[in-house]
Each structure stands twice: as structure tokens, then as C-alpha cells.
Amino acid sequence: MKATQFLISTLKEAPADAEVVSHKLMTRAGMIKKLGAGIYNYMPMGLRVIRKVEAIVREEMNRAGGIEVTMPVVQPAELWQETGRFEKMGPELLRIQDRHGRDFIVQPTSEEVVTDIARQEFKSYKQLPKNLYQIQTKFRDERRPRFGLMRGREFIMKDAYSFDKNRDTAQISYQTMREAYKRIFDRFGLQYRAVRADSGAIGGDLSEEFQVIASTGEDAIVYCPNSDYAANIEKAESLAPTQARPAAAQAMAKVSTPGNATCEAVAEQLGLPLSQTVKSLVLATDTLNDKGEVVKTQVWLLLLRGDHEMNEIKVGKVEGLAGFRFASVPEIEDHFGAKPGYLGPIGLKQPVKIVVDRDVAVMADWVCGANEEDFHITGVNFGRDLPEPELVADLRNVVAGDQSPDGLGELAIERGIEIGHVFYLGTKYSQAMNATFLGDNGKPQHFEMGCYGIGVTRLPAAAIEQNHDERGIIWPDAIAPFTVVVCPIGLGRSELVKTEAEKLYNELLALGVDVILDDRDERPGAMLADWELIGVPHRVVLGDRGLKEGQVEYQHRRDTEATKLATTEVLSHLKSRLGL
Amino acid sequence: MKATQFLISTLKEAPADAEVVSHKLMTRAGMIKKLGAGIYNYMPMGLRVIRKVEAIVREEMNRAGGIEVTMPVVQPAELWQETGRFEKMGPELLRIQDRHGRDFIVQPTSEEVVTDIARQEFKSYKQLPKNLYQIQTKFRDERRPRFGLMRGREFIMKDAYSFDKNRDTAQISYQTMREAYKRIFDRFGLQYRAVRADSGAIGGDLSEEFQVIASTGEDAIVYCPNSDYAANIEKAESLAPTQARPAAAQAMAKVSTPGNATCEAVAEQLGLPLSQTVKSLVLATDTLNDKGEVVKTQVWLLLLRGDHEMNEIKVGKVEGLAGFRFASVPEIEDHFGAKPGYLGPIGLKQPVKIVVDRDVAVMADWVCGANEEDFHITGVNFGRDLPEPELVADLRNVVAGDQSPDGLGELAIERGIEIGHVFYLGTKYSQAMNATFLGDNGKPQHFEMGCYGIGVTRLPAAAIEQNHDERGIIWPDAIAPFTVVVCPIGLGRSELVKTEAEKLYNELLALGVDVILDDRDERPGAMLADWELIGVPHRVVLGDRGLKEGQVEYQHRRDTEATKLATTEVLSHLKSRLGL
Question: What values do phi and psi take at B441, rounded to 5?
């Protein structure tokens, strides 16, 4: 490709609404152009990256036995009504009526349609297993689309669906996809981690996320550096403490803590470790009647260590707490006689249900609010100052330093961006849609299904979050818009530069290298800045003076300086850098 | 590819709603699966064809300087309101509201968005010409979707848009695309014709359709076998007759024609050539007031030769007839005093405006209706029995045997399916959206635009309409789902068959041939019928008995019989057939 025959369109400034670096850089590098909230044109430079992502995904899906189909973007509502998702999915599902007033949706995913295909196509267990996939435009009407391609409304997703005759072969299909995903993400040249998205309990449903490691990621990932244990913090199990509760050593005492409404502030005032404080979180659960009216409200008090964070998923699994909400300030004042910041389990105005985190249950001499503004209590002990806890549960996010559930060391935490998900669905959809095949026992059986997604347009954004510097993007070779850029300096003034640049360009083309020749005759500063912003990994600069001395300059996008190479060796150098 | 790892799903019966052969065969061959009216899943076998079409289109678009982008499927209404198409397009445009109640559309085409890109990206004439294209899902809410992929609602289209600094370079861009289209359709291996979609008048706007020739096509194409003149019959100009009107030879006479309400019936009864009769078509035009109410209606009588068909586009261009409609029976009876079938220009109850086709204007002694049921008049002559015509115009479709407008012979007519369109748009969109660049005169100028479409998913259907027989599809090599199928007979019973089939399969793979090995171990009859239905062009059948004699059978899909080949020469035979 020659630059003058392409569309290179870089910007000095990022758009005002760009909050994350990938959004800023993709816009500045002319890779995407906003059309509406969460809706982008994929511009030529960005589309090249997307196509490379698609090609790698397609190749590995085919290698793993996937069969490509394309399901419609606009889908009739009927199938979605069969599974109930037409109603359940809420406003994220874009609904349309056609000219005849019939309901349609724009696909956010395609479980319904693919299950409909399966129930028509796969009549016998002999046809199984099968894996159907598509790389297709999706739409989710996010309430707050943002971060460019990271959380768009329209996006491209690869979604695959496996159909198996039983749970055992379904696990094999799952593992096959998992391995394919590892090959795919390896080929992308990204640092990533496959993390458990389920509770990690043995026998739990299989579900793993593929997370691209990036400090700007939205997800916290817990992992064990000594093993392959990794989980989304939302789902990561913390081990029960092994130590016994120490004996009480202090008497209970009310202390004045004016204005110190957080555990951190109280610990600092008292000169105690934060782990000696206990935070009180007040939740509520409502009982509704047939008409959806609240007929009864239960207030709950959760006790967590001051240095721990509540995990909403774990809390929601405590018996009675499904569908909990945070209590209102009037509800809190009604039960505790105090406002948030000074709450505790002692001296309640009205009874509440108390749930104690496992780590709190083994504490002695702890500090909590006194249920009185500007006062806390120190030296609190279970069994003495309040009853032994009845309800003890895992309520908290794991923290760095916790033991890994596999016993192989301490956990560490890093941040990531979810770009893939493998999920064992079981018979959820096949039962809802009565999708069956004739089993080897001669009876109709429901398909065992799995689903497997990769965010094709999100991936370039995640790659940038992981690979950039102050000058711009640094693409891994495999998904760079171009692998090599040839930059002739003073093209219009030097026949030598022109000839040598064309020669190198043609030699690289002949080798099958994805090379662009920047024949725009731009000023050197602007030209090189463009390519650093765009992030092409390999660059060769040719200038008249250098060429007269038989030299050109090579620079990898990660190098801080250019390397002078003899014109005679530049090709072999590039071949070795590109692994050719 | 091995058949057991793919999805082969043939049907004995075509679906009841399939009216055309391509719809029947694509469904029976398992290439498409209906999801809703005009909405299809592209199944694995069909998707392979579509991907090959896309690849050829993309390659030739790139070769012609096109730059690929992708514009969103779901587009905000604002740009469509700028050009007025949001309102104008009517119910064919699928409109959506998002969760915030904002208006969106599903793209039927992308002039607005691409013009918006151009006005932001192309600031100076120095950046021009540019051609942006996409291969993307489109949706048109057809009132009556039918014929499978031929007239679907959701479809894939390649749409390209050229931007030029002036009309001269725009013509070059247009010609470049026209040449690219010829290369594309040549590569598809289809018989096609580039036909004028405009009036053919010199200086008229440039617009050509690419029509795949097929007897089942919806469009009639007029062409001159001795030249490159070709036009859609809708737009094909008929030459003015060169002969003078003969002198009147007959007296006018009223004849009884009971029940003969057509020119054909009257001509037969009277033993006259159909070309001696004149048909009377009654139209009406309404004048509306500001409120859209009809305040005046003008009734028109069109006189055409009995063997000619009215051309609505030409009629609409006659002064005063833009927006015409056919008159109602009461309107006809009001003015003619008779009902349709017996109408004529003589003896009207109320005056009408008469428009005479050029070929009628030179007739003498003609036959028309008597404005009385069951009666016609013979020997009618202008100037004697009725006034000389005031309004004479080209009102008719050309017919086979008419002179070609280029004077190079007689016209012929064949039927075609439109699969591509190149269109010079001028500044229609750039003016509506005020899309300008800085011209070489230093002033803002509107882009000169062209648009160029190819129906990517319609093309396979058109290919089938042109290439099929009673056994199924006959794909041209370039877009066949597989180029070669290797059919081992009795795979499970003969180790020799298994080994030789695998060997040939692997040899073909190594040559880069798109080959499928049918390892399903089906009965020979069913297996071969499947591949004849699917239409793979080259087939090799290996059986145990033949192999023991050192022979296999080759058959091209168009051959009536198989050719016996020595196992040693099958590969070289295939290479020569495939041009390798």
C-alpha cells in the first residue's frame, strides 16, 4: 500500500469525550470516527486491524472444528419470545417494528437463532458434536456507551455455540474452545489471563473469561503467581481463616471519634491497624405481594473487616439476601438510632439480621461504631459483648496476600479487560426452545450447549490499553494495520531516496510483508510522528545523506533509538525481525 | 475440508414459498435457511459462496484504488434528516428508537454517512479523488420480500462512493469503477451485460446496470448484437419512425366485435396484423391544493400500436404526465361513455388530452375501439376522422427488431438480473449536506460524487438462475462453495478406497485447491445426488473395483457422463481443468 492511495488522517487532539487512552489514540490515529453515542465508523486504518483480528479468530475457529455461519442482524421476535429474553433483556435489547408492525430485534447475541438452527439440522446424536460460529455485527443499547470501542453499542463479536449429546462431550467441546482461545490470544501477541468467572467451586458451571492485562482495565483479576489459578474478583473465593479467634484482652470502651466516619479515619485516630476495625453495612430485602407491592422489609447488618470490601455476588448468595438493596438512611436511623459512619451491632433500636464475614468471626478486641454520631466502641468481643455470630459467610472480595484456593501461594491482583468468554450453558436454551436430537437410546434429548465469545472490535482497544506510550500506539505485529512502514525523507528532492524506497517497498511486498510506503512527501517530523501515533511496529527511514553513505535507519516502535543499517543488510535484518 | 467436519444438509423438497429456481436450489442445497420473511441465515455451504464473492469484489475494489471502511448498520437519523431521506424514503427504511427515544435507521445504503466522512476528511482538492467502499449488511423493508436472496430484506451489499473535485475527474472515477465491475463480473464466470440505466441521450447522467443474463430475470434488457449498445427496457430509447404516413385507403367503418376487448382478439377476428390496431390507455393526473386535496383532475388518452407496450418512465416524462395514475372505471365511462376494451379517440363524451405514440402518428387505416361495448372502428385516419395529433411522443417499450439507436443493427431483447449498478450522483448529496473541500481556486466546492453497488448476497442467486439444470446448481469455479469434491464409494469397506481418496485429497490441498472429501460413507446414489444439487464443478469418484484396475472417474458438473482416468493421471487432469 502507498500512503497517497490510502487514508491517513491523524489528529493532534483527542475528542473531548474520550476518557481512556485507547479511545483517544484510536481517534487520533484515524482508526475510528464517531457517528453517534457508542456507534463508530471503522476507518481504513482501524478496519485493517479489525480484519486481522477476524482472520486470526476465523483460522483458529476453523482449526478447532468450528463451522462458520452468518445469522441475521435483524431477527424476528418470535424466537426471543420462546426463551423469554424478548421481555427479560430490558432496554439493552434494541427492538424494532417493521412496516407491518411485527416485532424484531437487532441481535445482541444469537443463542435463540443458533438453537433454532440446531433443532432443525441436528436430528441425531451421530451428527454431534457441532460448533457453529459467526463473526457478525451486534448491537446492545448500553445505557452509558463510552470508552470508544471498549463499550460501544454497535460492535463486531465472534460468537460460537457448541452442541453436544451429553455433559461429558460438552466438557470436551468446552475445553477445545478454551484451547483455541489460548492459541488465538497467543497469536494476538497480547499478555492475557484466562480467569474463572464462576465461583471456582468444584462441579460449578464452567465459565472462564479471557482478560487482557492492562492497568486501565475495568475488571480486577485475582491470580496465584505460582499456579494457573486466576479468577475475576467478582467470583474469586476467599479461603476460610485457619486461625482460631484469640481470647478477649481488652474491655469494651466508648471513644469519641468526632467527624471520623470511616474505618480508615478511626484506625488512624486510634493508631490501630485497619484490620482491627469492623465496618457495618446495612442492607434490606423486601417481600412483595402479587401486585408487586412491598408488604414486609427485613433489614440486615453485614460485618466486614475494615480493610475488606464487600462482594455483592457473594452477599447475594447468602440465604435470604438474594435481590438485596442498600438500606435507606431513614431505615438505618430507624434501626440503629444513628446515621451511617457510626454504626455497629451493639445497642440497636430495633432488631436486624446480622451476617458476619468469616474473617470478622475470628477477630477479638475489635472496633466498630457506637450507634451514636461521633462515637465508636473499642475492645468489642463476640460471646461477651454481643452474641456469638449465628450467620457466618464469605462476604468479601479477596485481597492481595490471601492464600490461593489451590494452596499454592499467596494471591496477587491485577487489572484486566475482558475480551473473551467461554461458557458452558448446559440445557438452558435447548430446554426453553425444546431443541432436541434423537439420542443413542432412541429418545429425544436436549442439546448440551456452550457459548464462546470474542469481542472483535473491543480487542484492538484492549491491545492499545496494554501497548502504548506517550507517542502513541504500539501494535503487536499480528494485528498491526501495517507491519512495516517505509519512510522516505525528502522524496520529492532526491531521486536516490525515491528509487531506494520503492526498491525496498517492492522487495518487502514480494516477501508478502504487509508494508506501507509513505509517499506523501511530508516533513520528517510530522511523518514520523504520524507513524508513532499509528503504532506500526517496524519502521525504516531512508534519507539522501544516509543513502549516500550506504545507510538507512531501522527502528522498532518499542526502541528508544534508531539503528543504522547498511542498505545491503536492511532486508535481511527485517526478515529476521519478522521471523521470515 | 472433510464432509463430516462440515454441515451438509440437503433437502428433497423445496419450501412451499420458493417461486424461483435459485431460491429452491439454495434452500435444497442447505445454503440458506429462512428465519423470517426476506431474512435468511447464511448456512456454511452458502456462506462459502458469499465469502468468495466478497473476496473477488474486495480484491478488485482495492486494485481500482478503493479504500475499505465499515459504516454502522444502525445509524442516527440526523444525517438522514439533512438530506430529507429520513422522511422521503417511506416504509422501506427501517426506523428504530433507542432507549432514550432517539431516532435511528438500519442502513439501506450509506450516502449520508460516507458524505459526512468526506466533509470531515477531505479538506482539499489535493486529497481527491478518493473512493471509499464497504461490504456490509443492509436492510430494506420490502413490501413483498420474495425469491430468497434475490429480493430479501436483509442482505449484504458492496457499496462504494467516489469523491471528485470536478465533473471531468468524476467521469474518470466512474469509468474506473465501470472497468473494475467488468473485471469482477468476468472473474465470477457469469454471462452478463452492462446496460444503460439512463435514457441513453448524450449528456444524460451516467448510470449503468450490470445484469446477469438469465431467462428468469425480472428485467428486460435491450441490446444490439452488433455493438455494445445495451439498455434496460425501462430506459431504452426507441428511434422515431423514418417512414412517412401512407395515404388513407379505407373508409371508416364500425364493426361488431362481441367480447373481443383486446387488440389481439380484434386483430384475429378481423384477420389483420396486430400492428394495424391501436390501443387506448386512459390515464389521469390530479392537481392538489395545499392540504393535499384533489382540486382538479385531467384525463388523458394515450394511443399506442396494438403490438407495443407502454413504458411508464417515458410516459412520466411527457409534459403534464409526471405523477400520472391509471384512470378509474367511472372516470373512463364519464369521458368515453364505454368501458375499457372498446375505447378510442372518436366520439368522446367529454374532451380528454390525447398523446399519440410516434409509431401511431405514422399509421393509416387503423383500428380502434368505438366507445361502445362490443364495437370497434376500422379504417381510421388522422386528419380525416380525427384531428392531426397535437402531442406526439415516445411512449413505448422498444421491441426486438427495432433499430438500435447507434444505427448498427436491429435490437434484440433478453432477460437479466441486476447485480450491480454504477451511478454518477453529481452534487446531489454534497449540496444537501453542504459537503465541501477547498478547490484549487481557493474556494469551497461541493464534491462530485458517484455511487457503485454490488449485491453480494444476490449474486449467488443470480449465478444459479443462469447456471442450473434439473439436478441442481452448476457453480462457476470462482464462486463454487468447493472447487473439487472427492467422492470415495464404500469408504468403510475398502482400505484401498480410503487410502487413495485421502491421498488425492491431500495432494489437492497441497496445491491450494478448495477441495472437500466426502467421508460420510453415504450410499453412492445419495452422495452423488447431493453434490449435483450443491453444484461443485469438479468431481472425482473413487471405487474399489475401479481402483483395482487403476482407474477413477472424473466428471465436470456440466458433463453428461463421467470420464475414466488412470489414477496416475487424475491429478494432472485436474490441474489442467483448474488452470493450475
Answer: -90, 10
